[in-house]
Amino acid sequence: MMALAASQLFCKICRMTQPDIPTTPDIAIVGGGLAGMLAGLALAHSGFSSIVIDRNAEPLEADFDGRTTALSYGAVRVFEQLGLWQDLAPKAGLMSDIMISDGTPADRFRAGHQSAGFMHFRDEVEGVKKPLGFILENRHLRAVLEKAIAKTPQCSLIYNATMRDYRASTADVKITLNTPLNSGDTIVAKLVLACDGRGSRLRAMAGIRTTTNDYHQTALTFVLKHSASHDNVAHQYFLPDGPFATLPMTDNRTSVVWSEKSALTPALLALPEDQFIAQLKNRLGDLLGEVELASKIYAYPLSMILPVKFFADRLVLIGDAAHGIHPIAGQGFNLGVKDIAALCDVLVEMRDAGLDIGHGTGLEKYERWRRHDTTTMALGSGGFNLLFTQKSHGVRALRSAGMSMLTKIAPLNQRLMRHAGADLGELPSLMRE
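^ thats the sequence. predicted structure below, dont judge the formating
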């Protein structure tokens, strides 16, 4: 009883800190993570009202927990156009170079990374100097998004709420909520966005099937504090059991994404910290000097998830609900940012033509726009992972030759950089320079 009373009191406090919640927005957004909140702000920028439904309690004071997000320079443009980047830029770790090498822990550092296959991407795209990307702590991203929503009349955020039911009709969609205070609150909208992650409950309720592929790898993610400078360089090493990436952060810290065979990760996680660091140094070498853990270690099983459709009756999939890919290229959240920007353009076009924004005929354009990019990235990242975990000497020789060619042939190198920067193909208006 005491726990229930405390939960109810906390929920009341949360509601007191935000404006009255409208029950008839243009769009309901299920999922209050980074993608859901960014979608609400982008839709408000495009003239639509929305409500974001977050199952989590409001974080009154977020401590650093080690979770980070990589933003491509194309995705940063969206944050710039929404007026968010000025608050994020001082907290962003700069990636001015990306160095990619194929090698075992024993030979990776010989001859300046040249003993194995090697690629180098510099901070210049088609003659224009620009950062290749940025690394941000999730807590800073979330704080800036929440602050912006609090100042945006057309976007509201409900904390501590879960979706109980969703019903689509020819005229609207009804979302029934559960909260600690009330059960049965209903939001009526023209369209609902599923931003509720890889295991999207809303996607399942809509009957949208998925294609999956288990990579039999687990990603260990954490942050290091180190004695040597990272020089704003991101490193991606292709090792026999999975890729290993270091991503530069502020304050001489580095975010690590260590993909390992799933069968081996329980033993790694059970190691005392000094032994875990020793295993880490076997892969990292002396790149960062002396290192120490600066966060918790998170473990995420890796798989590919692609839906057979990106929309259903008055429903659209966004972010991880629309695609789960291997983190080898760090593009997961960036794909979601492009989803949001593309959807805004589609909905504006439908509204300006006097069409119902929840009608499936118009939403087919969103699916066509995003399917190719999403599928290419999912299959490409999975294919790269498969290619670079092959241990055959012949395959490795071909890999090395291919990586050398991609580094030396400028047009290919530039195209890969633009692809990684989410700067290719038909760009939504929020992502254009």
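The longest helix spans residues 360-388.
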